[in-house]
Design a protein that fits this description.
This protein folds into two domains: 170 residues, Rossmann fold, CATH 3.40.50.300; 67 residues, no CATH class. By secondary structure, it is an alpha/beta fold. A six-stranded mixed sheet has the order 6-7-8-3-9-10, sandwiched between helices. Strands 2-1-4-5 form a four-stranded antiparallel sheet. 36% of the residues lie in helices and 24% in strands. Helix 3 packs across helix 4. Strand 4 and strand 5 form a beta hairpin. It is built from nine helices and ten strands. Bound molecules: adenosine-5'-triphosphate and magnesium ion (MG). Magnesium ion binds next to helix 1.
């Protein structure tokens, strides 16, 4: 086992009653790497994320961040994590600036640093003109950007992004994707993101893991997955459908079911 991995999942599993939501999932993500979990609705992506950030106890296996077991050394592990949940929870009656100052306090950042970091992140995410408006009056995309800013306040070494571009318009999604790539390349941040949108995984990820009914059915670069699917040169949609067992013969594509 490599404790140097920024993100480590070992034989991770979670049941909800009789439902095996996540099943025997093992994976390591290195510093500076972008890894995408790609899977259909209900595949187990969010459940995996929630176990990684310490919100949902695993039924089996373990998770570690920067060598710290999330469930045995939660403080050390959580200090290293920036998490953007699929449905962000914000204090709607604070302004954007107030909320980020408040969160910086929770992270124990010195006041001056918290204020400087707030200004920097509001500018980076194009929210500077909305800094002193109530979050309640923000659009969906603006709220998503606030969640991203919050996750970055303490300069985490590991970013866990659950459907991070949901609710963002094309330009904002482009900006966020570019930012994520930059954090990984320049700052060595390990990024684990979930998406059911094929082109996001294709564009951003160094490696892609296909999750199907709670199981990680294969992991690799897009080219490696194409090899596995026996379809060299195929696009990710064809690979995905082949490897998740829902493949339609190519000549059948476009024909009514
Ligand atoms: N708190 C819960 N109680 C019971 N079942 C749950 C709970 N959370 C998730 N599940 C079940 O676990 C399975 C995986 O759900 P999960 O939210 O992880 O999927 P997902 O891959 O994130 O899907 P989506 O793309 O729709 O976000 C589903 O069958 C879901 O119904
Ligand atoms: Mg989800």
């Amino acid at each position: 086992m490599n404790e140097q991995a920024a993100i480590l999942l070992e034989h991770l599993g979670r049941d909800f009653g009789a439902t095996r939501a996540v099943d025997d999932l093992s994976l390591q993500v290195a510093p500076g790497e972008i890894f995408a979990f790609l899977g259909a609705n209900g595949a187990g992506k969010t459940t995996t994320m929630r176990m990684l950030v310490g919100l949902l106890p695993p039924t089996r296996g373990r998770v570690a961040i920067g060598g710290h077991d999330v469930w045995k050394e939660p403080r050390q592990a959580k200090r290293a994590i920036g998490y953007v949940p699929d449905t962000p929870i914000l204090h709607e009656l604070l302004t954007a600036r107030e909320f980020l100052w408040f969160m910086a306090d929770l992270y124990n950042l010195p006041r001056a640093e918290g204020q400087a970091r707030t200004a920097e992140l509001l500018a980076m995410l194009g929210l500077q003109d909305a800094a002193d408006r109530l979050i309640r009056d923000f659009s969906l995309g603006m709220k998503r950007k606030m969640a991203i800013a919050t996750a970055l306040l303490h300069r985490p070494e590991v970013l866990l992004l659950d459907e991070v571009t949901n609710g963002l318009d094309a330009r904002a999604a482009r900006e966020v994707k570019d930012l994520v790539a930059r954090w990984a390349r320049e700052d060595g941040v390990a990024v684990l993101l979930t998406t059911h949108i094929l082109h996001i995984a294709e564009e951003l990820a160094d490696r892609i893991g296909l999750i199907h009914k709670g199981r990680l059915i294969c992991v690799g670069t897009k080219e490696e997955l194409a090899q596995l699917a026996g379809r060299p040169g195929a696009n990710l949609e064809e690979i995905f459908l082949t490897l998740t067992g829902d493949a339609v013969p190519l000549e059948m594509e476009g024909e009514p079911a």
